[in-house]
Amino acid sequence: MPPERILIVIDEMEVGGSQRQITHLLGGLDRARWQPELLYFRNPSHLVDTIRAHGVAVHHLPKRGRVDIRFLCAYVAFLRRRRFALVHAFSLTAELWTLIATTLAFPFARRPALVASVRGLYLDASRTFWRIKRLIVRHSNAIIANAHACADAAASGTGLGRERFDVVPNAIAAEPAITEAQRERLAAAIGHPPGRPLALFVGRLVAVKNLPCLIRALARLPHQRRPWLALAGDGPLAPSLQRQILDAGLGDDVRLLGERDDTAALMQAADLLVLPSRQEGMSNALMEAMAAGCPVVASAVGGNLELIDPERTGLLFASDDDEELAVCMQRLADDPGLRRRLAEAARERMRDGHSLARMVAATAQIYERGIRLAPASAGNASGSTVEGDA
Predict the structure, then answer these.
(1) Coil vs helix vs strand at 177
(2) Helices and strands (H and E) in the chain: how many
(3) pLDDT in tens, 73-95
(4) Which of 41, 83, 198, 369 has a CA-to-CA distance to 318 between 20 and 30 Å?
């Protein structure tokens, strides 16, 4: 039997958590069973090149503005031409336009199975967001959440049954270890002063990451015991964060590194990673740090609670509590033994529970079920799924 042609769709291919998971998934799917392709609308990154290197066909379909009829017509024609067995969309924008396009492309014929995604808690989402998400869920053959907290939030927000949502936790790829000499060179290259603990944040510089809380926490610590902080990532809040850093008198203690393609090495070089987000699904940065043996401190929200066993695999603090975060950072900065103990347990947790093979196999199993249950036409879609045990 020839492999099934399937499509992964996302609006942006910038460097982010969903995009990294897409890269892992496309690289891991069995080519004897699946012929995966990628479609994105805007903002490519080096991840597109990585996906192409996996032998995956990559398609760029530009979308201009919120409503782009030319884009929709092109998407409909693309779907008719390629004849996918399944389409998996990774963002609300991609989900909505995929639902519309498949309905128009195959009004009276069997359409591709549709798989939707839940990759966050969406605590600040509007009623319009949830109305759209409900529509998408009802017309999808499967919905994959990357954390139980995300599935619970989506069930509540859409008003639909929790049994519709599968849970497949994110996976992390094993990265080659760097040597002590490489660690020292990398630390020096980013401006880290020798002798001070190196704290790291990896992620987009956006409001939900709550980086002002991290800056406030750092400012609470006495200068002689304060870790040096590197922020690896880019985003719209970079200018305001730089102003906050200078206003707090931390100009010599914090460095904005911009977007990096060596975050795995940075995590191995760091003494601790901090994730102060107001909400999180299943954080790739947190998982990658744990797998790299970098001790972590994170806000007690969403999927962070599923990843971190407090005092065993990391430290948790109450969301937006800069005083408690400062205490956690100081503990890790001052205690190498604590760092080693947390790092070893976290690495074991990632190795045992979040392998690429496990994520790919669980996702492929859902794809098989989705294709089997796909309706004969777009007007007869069923959204029922059962929660996976992954």
Answers:
(1) coil
(2) 15, 13
(3) 999 999 999 999 999 999 999 99
(4) 198
